[in-house]
Amino acid sequence: MSNDPYADLGNASDEMQLRLLEAMIARAEDPKQIAMRHAYLSKVNLPAGAKAVELGSGPGDVTRDLIQVAGAAEALGLEPSSVMVRAAAARHSDTLGLSFAVGDAKATGLADHSVDLVALHTLLIHCPDPEEAIAEAHRILKPSGYLTVFDEDPPSVTAAIADNDPFHPVVDNLIRAYVHDRWLVRRTAGLLLQSGFDILHRDGHLYLPAPDSPYFLTIIDRGADTLLAEGVIGEELAQGIRTEARRRMETGHFFGSIAFVGIIARKR
Ligand SMILES: C[S@@+](CC[C@H](N)C(=O)[O-])C[C@H]1O[C@@H](n2cnc3c(N)ncnc32)[C@H](O)[C@@H]1O
Fold first, then answer.
1. Among residues of the chain, what percentage have pLDDT more than 90?
2. How confident is the model at residue 2 (pLDDT cuts 50, 70, 90)?
3. What is the Cα–Cα distance from 71 to 38, expressed in whole angstroms?
4. pLDDT in tens, 44-57
5. Average pLDDT value for the chain
């Protein structure tokens, strides 16, 4: 099993599930993230009454967008973490046609050829054996059904502002601890082609949040806390890293960016 806590979140401690819920909400509510989701989800062209599923739905904002942006009539979010499922249901209780349940992307229990759209939004880089989730999406999709895949390119994540910036190793450490396969997004199109999909669009999206981004603060804090938990640094240095991120944010000197790749594919 992977060390990436997202890979087995249903069995992680409540503390870890709540921490990642907080990080995922901060990211989902970031206006630049909302704009990127709109940019790729508005490229699907669903039939009336379409059914959509998000696998790995986390706090549920992307599942909600499958109705509000992609135009599905119904959307189901499946997710192994019951903490995430409860939070998603509570956060989006006002959206008609939306539901959430505990489930596994590799064995959804949904019928063959029953869904018009499957969304995998920042799931695959956290999945050991991602081809199994892609095969499950293929099985449940109707012929010509849409698969959308959106993932970050982890080697692109940076918060450094100079060659010798200590945020280099902090961010590298976060990626090492929180991503199962840091190169996957560069192989995803090939995996989809060999799994029975045609690629309609593959676009890059640069995420350059505001200099006081709450999501990027979770990246620095989690990077520092992982180094602390592993005994690499002590509490004083961990606190210094957290304080430095806040200092940069308060003075407008913080920089963070991530390249994402969005793919719209159709079942062949
Ligand atoms: C980085 S989060 C993304 C959540 C959501 N898609 C979003 O972007 O806000 C990845 C999610 O995938 C879930 N996940 C990981 N492995 C999974 C699997 N085998 N089946 C379903 N979900 C899974 C994790 O529990 C986590 O909530």
1. 98
2. low
3. 11
4. 999 999 999 999 99
5. 96
Ligand 1 centroid vs 151 CA: distance in angstroms?
11
Strand partners, 101: 78
Choose which residue among 121, 123, 129 to substitute to test ligand 1 binding: the one with the highest number of ligand atoms within 8 A of its C-beta: 123
Q: Which protein residues are within 6 Å of ligand 1, measured from CB?
A: 6-7, 9, 24, 28, 55-59, 61-62, 78-81, 84, 104-106, 121-123, 126-127
- pLDDT of 1 > 80? The answer is no
Ligand 1 atom index nearest CA of 9? 25
What is the dotted CATH code of the domain comprising 5-152+181-209+257-267?
Answer: 3.40.50.150
Ligand 1 atom showing the smallest separation from residue 121 Cα: 6
How many whole angstroms from 61 Cα to the centroid of ligand 1?
Answer: 12
Angle (deg, nearest 10), helices 167-178 and 214-229 = 80
pLDDT, tens digit, 9 for 90 and up, residues 176-222: 999 999 999 999 999 999 999 999 999 999 999 999 999 999 999 99
End-to-end C-alpha distance for the chain, whole angstroms: 32
Length reported for the chain:
268
Rounded Cα distance between 155 and 176, Å, is: 10
Centre of ligand 1 to C-alpha 122, Å, is 7
In 48-168, beta strands by DSSP E: 51-55, 74-79, 98-102, 115-121, 141-152
Give the nearest ligand 1 atom to 61 CA: 9
Token code pair at residue 64: 């909600």
Answer positive or negative: Cα dihedral of 84, 86, 91, 94: positive
